[in-house]
Amino acid sequence: MLESVGSLTGGPWIYAVVALSVLFDVFLPVLPSGVLVITAATAAAAGSGAAVAGQVPEHVPDILFLMLSATTASVLGDLVAYRLAWRGGERLDRAIARSRRLTTAQERLGEALARGGGPLMVLARFAPAGRSVVSLVSGAAHRRVRDFLPWSVLAGMAWAGYSVALGYYGAHFLGASWLSTGVSVVALFGAGAGAAYLMRPQKAG
């Protein structure tokens, strides 16, 4: 299994692939950035296990570099989307006005940030397309950078840490197999479904 996973994640270029995937999935949420992070973390766990057994695996991802590249790319992607939305002007305002989902998100985000609800940004990082909505709406609403950036960093760290932990510890408990990778991916999607459920609009009572 180590060889098959290593063929997908071997070499220092894996950090660049992970970073680019995480960076651009703010615009294309269909990119499998979470799956890539989990797969690389699984390879890191497999490599550490081989080292303990006296073997010397080649091109095994470093767990800290993996977390750093994923977190940094997540924050940079958020900032790019935020700045583009900030400069979007009337055209973006009209696009948001035509989308009930974006309009609702803009209103909820504004209310949440006004009452210190920055944790919403962390929760949204796990929800499908939640990162995109938060970054674009924050920029379009001209939220202050000092209100946006710290929570973006925390959200990126939480998401990257969770994804890496799933792959790394899943491999330790279940073995470096496609089963452990699949279980970890399901757990990541489960967190996304839970976040989307918690962020759903509340019906007026």
Gist of the model:
The chain is mostly helical and 205 residues long. The protein has helices spanning 2-9, 13-24, 33-52, 63-86, 89-98, 100-114, 119-126, 130-140, 145-174, 178-198.
Helix content: over 70%
Distance between the termini: 53 Å
Oligomeric state of the chains in view:
single chain
**Strand content bin:** under 5%
Q: What is the H-and-E element order?
A: HHHHHHHHHH
Q: Report the major sheet.
A: none
Outline the low-pLDDT stretches: 1-7, 49-57
Alpha-beta classification: mainly alpha
Shape: elongated
Report the average pLDDT across residues: 78
Q: Kindly state the number of beta strands.
A: 0
Rg: 18 Å
If helices are DSSP runs of H or I spanning 4 or more residues, what is the number of helices? 10
Q: What this model shows, in words?
A:
Helix content is 78%, strand content 0%. With 205 residues, it is an all-alpha fold. The longest helix has 30 residues. The chain is elongated and about 50 Å long. The chain starts with a helix and ends in a 7-residue tail after the last helix. The N terminus is likely disordered.
What descriptive keywords fit this protein?
205 residues, 10 helices, 78% helix, 0% strand, mainly alpha
Helix-strand layout with pairing:
Blueprint: H1 2-9, H2 13-24, H3 33-52, H4 63-86, H5 89-98, H6 100-114, H7 119-126, H8 130-140, H9 145-174, H10 178-198
Helix pairs in contact: 1-3, 2-3, 2-4, 3-4, 3-9, 3-10, 4-8, 4-9, 6-8, 7-8, 7-9, 7-10, 9-10
